[in-house]
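Q: Joint fold for the lines below.
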Amino acid sequence: MAKELTSMSENYSQWYNDLVVKADLAENSAVRGCMVIKPYGYAIWEKMQAELDHRFKETGHVNAYFPLFIPKSFFSKEAAHVEGFAKECAVVTHYRLKNDPNGKGVVVDPDAKLEEELIVRPTSETIIWHTYKNWIQSWRDLPILCNQWANVVRWEMRTRLFLRTAEFLWQEGHTAHATQQEAIEETYKMVNVYADFAENVMAMPVVIGHKSENERFAGALDTLCIEALMQDGKALQAGTSHFLGQNFSKAFDVQFANKEGKLEHVWASSWGVSTRLMGALVMAHSDDHGLVLPPKLAPFQVVIVPIYRSEEQLNAITEKVDVIIEKLKARGISVKFDFSDAKKPGWKFAEYELKGVPVRLAVGPRDLENGTIEVARRDTLTKEVVNVDGIDQYIEDLLENIQKSIYNKALDFRTEKTTVVDTWDEFKEVLKNKGGFISAHWDGTSETELQIKDETKATIRCVPLDAIEEEGTCVYSGKPSNKRVLFALSY
Amino acid sequence: MAKELTSMSENYSQWYNDLVVKADLAENSAVRGCMVIKPYGYAIWEKMQAELDHRFKETGHVNAYFPLFIPKSFFSKEAAHVEGFAKECAVVTHYRLKNDPNGKGVVVDPDAKLEEELIVRPTSETIIWHTYKNWIQSWRDLPILCNQWANVVRWEMRTRLFLRTAEFLWQEGHTAHATQQEAIEETYKMVNVYADFAENVMAMPVVIGHKSENERFAGALDTLCIEALMQDGKALQAGTSHFLGQNFSKAFDVQFANKEGKLEHVWASSWGVSTRLMGALVMAHSDDHGLVLPPKLAPFQVVIVPIYRSEEQLNAITEKVDVIIEKLKARGISVKFDFSDAKKPGWKFAEYELKGVPVRLAVGPRDLENGTIEVARRDTLTKEVVNVDGIDQYIEDLLENIQKSIYNKALDFRTEKTTVVDTWDEFKEVLKNKGGFISAHWDGTSETELQIKDETKATIRCVPLDAIEEEGTCVYSGKPSNKRVLFALSY
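A: Joint structure:
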């Protein structure tokens, strides 16, 4: 291989990190915990954004932009929010540098101290609800269905590229409604949008469910989430949608006159996904050869590598390839023709495997003679020689096939790695030796949940929306339970 | 009118501010100098972004993302950069809040002080060139053609919505090249991309030229810019493209092995436009009735208002309108049908004039009988009744016509407001009574430039690329000059 990756089986965590860096997705920066998203990684993120943004707009949402900075005092206004959340933040205290009077360089100007410190947003509920107060007077002003694409900062101590970084990119939806029911419906609608995106675009099966009270967003009455399973058997929370009740409207005094002219507090939801999805995408599908990208997110879906010895051969190949490219583009398929002379075909094959390009075409002199082309698919690493006639239709079908195959493979993996467990010994045994999701009864108390976490590090990933009502006893406490929840180790 | 605007003639500055707020483009936030970009304003910005991003990609650029924070020490590395630039910045000194031990709320945790302060990026040359050092070893790694869409912060003391805010959104391109010539060509290429965008999308004529040394970007060897004229006769710098020479590659020690294996410093350009363009857009075209938006940037290009007394009439109108909407959408024209009952047609007319919707259609019972529709264009405020057959073609042509008319109107205005001046008295007289661009000879010295600025507040907006070589004498000093430059008061 062109660039050596640690194998998954040897060291999963190192494999992940190697892959993110060597496939040119992202790298660490000079600033602790902040990453640089490299062009190839950013191109995937742009595709995610476009797909999500389209879904948001289709469901009636509009984009807006709110300030990066939040006055410190805003964080004290919603008690649960500050308690559960807002501590590890970047704090701006000054607004000017000056030349160092004692030497070279610059120092912070002590005279330029802010009266009130500003916090770099870790999430924007507070500043947005402060703003909504001026936007909402009457029921006619509702609902407000805003989304924001933005950067946020949470001062994480241990960071990992995409999965946990001090600064990350995300979208945050913040909606305001006249009734509780409407806000709850919105919360469900958006978690379903996320699930649709995860499954149909990322080819990543997810479980939709409620977070337990312990795992809920600070300030929410209910947090819905999508949970995905990574190839090392750990779960990853890939998106959340919160029903906030009237907590923020009360904290920021946002009331509206209802149709009877009476003042009521507004009902709220918020929901978000982040560049963490990039980490999920990598860990859901990739292998020891590199990335495996679903065609819907690949920066280019097809790469064409010419095999030639002479300039003349390259010219003849290029002539054929140009026709193929035109046909593929006409079908909306993105293609790169790598005719560069600097690297050999073998190096290119390895490089595009590493980069996860779904389909690779190779054309050599013999293909010209025979009217054939070699087609290799990244997900299965299989090759076949096909006739060049009708190649565009063939590739279009193949890309659809790959998109589905990747999803099915991940679904099979999850099914295999989801274990129904009824005893505590079995719980520990499965967690230790098999991993994955454990479907078990739980007595519904935070106490039990925390004891399980203390003993095993496993957390309740969610109470699935489709959990069946059934009589049971808690796997840990033996107390009664009426449905199974999903436990797992997690990112 | 629905919402009262101050008139342009009465108080231009107040007119601008009223319009930005009342047309729902943006508003001030709880954080000094930071704005909230409201959904209607953000929708225009999104269209600007899409048009620009398309042009960047067409010219071979890719997007990436670099950290929000920059270590303080980076600013000392490029001497001219820190001298000219980096002083008024938001400085992060701490990374944690804690509960106030003496009461409610939160305070900054004094134990969580950063070893080195972090600066919220005012621009990203330093962090990006620090990153490029790891990306560039050989001539094969060049060129690097990256762009970043991001927020930046400059602690401005006097702020105005869009025109000058502490936080603003922008894009910044940062390119690395093997040769001086290639970097210079890139600098010109991108200022031409900006000019194309300004003229063909924003319908705003611009002059392309060089900045004088005084007005150059801190760290640049040459700054190219596009300058537009606002309706109050002041100029606005709408975009800049900098040739940075080897200043940043030397400051951050970025060298590459050339084809002969010798190490050379890399050549650089950077270029950017920001949400300031939103301010330019407002001031270039709008009037006392509100915004005038070019069709290419209007969130919706056509609004349809039904005129009805009964539910039955509305139903009949809706049936007709649905057909029209389908036809318009098939042509890629965006339409809003405002059938809401909450407001009267007159209110709606004024509202959509305020919002600058290029074309308004009104349909009443008589139109149904006659097979007609009333078409009003926002730019000229003229109305006509046209046959409903072929309305889609009519509207498509009309939108093209409006796009061109708005541009031509602005161009005529600029032509009228550009005065060739040869004496200092005339210079002052024109500046005082007429405003606009003054085309005058200048001796090329910073001294003269600064004296003119001191006496009149006028600055050299640019030395136009198409300035004609001619013998002349400086309008201020009487010294020899070989070309005219453009002076103006400016934003």
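Q: Anything notable?
A: Chain A touches chain B through 64 residues (CB under 8 Å). DSSP finds 13 helices and 27 strands in chain A.
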